[in-house]
Design brief:
By secondary structure, the chain is of the alpha/beta class. It is 50% helix and 16% strand. It contains twelve helices and ten strands. It has an eight-stranded mixed β-sheet, sandwiched between helices. The chain has a two-stranded antiparallel sheet with strand order 1-2. A hairpin with a 2-residue loop joins strand 1 (97-99) and strand 2. Helix 3 crosses helix 4 (47-64). The chain is elongated, with a radius of gyration of 21 Å. It binds guanosine-5'-diphosphate (GDP). Guanosine-5'-diphosphate binds at residues 112, 114-120, 148, 197, 256-257, 259-260, 282-285, 289. The site of guanosine-5'-diphosphate has 19 residues, from helix 6.
Length: 304
């Protein structure tokens, strides 16, 4: 929690200081409520989520009779935690299964627009799985970005995984197919595929990502489609997510770069607007900076 607090320090100054300062000040007049609303909007909660949360805060304050700053903190904690849909299943499905008596690796597609942190997330996730004792194959299916395969290779050497890569500019689906094939032959536990993240046109993305998934499914079940979103991109990130969701069945969101932003409120908006659980959060560029998303801990860290 200490570490999470540290990484979220920018957002913490908004929630744990500005917001709590406003709510802990006793009777709130309309101007103060306007300030609460503005604070939430600036933190990127979005209009709909902000209205919902402000309404809940007003109701709670009236019914509970919040007096002290400790009471304000407890109330804010409850309202924010509840807004994060605590009952969602956030486990990343990365364990192998048995099909017709044969072990089959879990297949995880990692999707997202270039620059969001897709390759880094794939590497960090491999590290987590290897640390848990899993054998992992990485598929460098982002064949369009010149450095992506090298970057993934570096990660796999670092964490002790194997990388399957194709020719630069080659067919992403062919690389994904080969990676799954390799994973099945060598009996690994999970195959993580770093997919291409071009979003020039929706149909281009359909072709690429949709095809990757279809081709992989010729051999194995796709257990998880993680969509990586950059927390600093706000509405843009949400718009991207909607496009991806139309193309493939996104099963989890990874929200990256939460360390560099005061706009951590995007987590609430993503959760509410997309209806897909946030499963992981990126808290820095280092190998250990990927954490499971736990609403309770997240809110505690935000409030200081
Ligand atoms: P891709 O194009 O989506 O594969 O993006 P990359 O994985 O290459 O990441 C783009 C940049 O974002 C790199 O400089 C990463 O180190 C950085 N990055 C990725 N995740 C995080 C994060 O959680 N926090 C911070 N601060 N930087 C990150």
């Amino acid at each position: 929690l200490e570490r999470l607090r540290g990484r979220l320090s920018k957002s913490r100054s908004v929630f744990g200081q500005s917001l709590l300062g406003l709510l802990g000040a006793g009777d709130l007049d309309e101007d103060s409520w306007q300030d609460v609303e503005d604070t939430l909007l600036v933190a990127d909660l979005g209009a709909a989520t902000t209205t919902e949360i402000v309404d809940k805060l007003r109701t709670e304050i009236t019914s509970r009779g919040v007096r002290t700053s400790e009471e304000a903190r407890a109330m804010l904690h409850d309202v924010l935690t509840e807004a994060l849909a605590t009952d969602a299943d956030r486990a990343v499905r990365a364990l192998p299964h048995t099909v017709d008596g044969q072990k089959q690796p879990a297949v995880v597609l990692v999707a997202g627009v270039n620059g969001t942190g897709k390759t880094t997330t794939t590497g960090k996730l491999a590290r987590v799985l290897v640390a848990q004792g899993s054998k992992v194959v990485l598929g460098a299916a982002d064949t369009f970005r010149a450095a992506a395969a090298d970057q993934l290779q570096t990660w796999s050497e670092r964490v002790g995984a194997e990388t399957v890569r194709g020719k630069e500019g080659g067919d992403p689906a062919a690389v994904a197919f080969d990676a799954v094939k390799r994973g099945m032959e060598s009996g690994v536990d999970a195959v993580l595929i770093d997919t291409a993240g071009r979003l020039h046109t929706k149909s281009g993305l359909m072709d690429e990502l949709g095809k990757v998934k279809r081709v992989v499914e010729k051999q194995a079940k796709v257990d998880e489609v993680l969509l990586v979103l950059d927390a600093t991109t706000g509405q843009n990130g949400l718009a991207q997510a909607r496009v991806f969701r139309e193309v493939v069945d996104v099963t989890g969101i990874v929200l990256t770069k939460l360390d560099g932003t005061a706009k951590g409120g995007i987590v609430f908006q993503v959760q509410r607007e997309l209806g897909v659980p946030v499963k992981l959060v990126g808290l820095g560029e280092g190998p250990d900076d990927l954490a499971p998303f736990e609403p309770e801990a997240f809110v505690s860290a935000l409030l200081g």
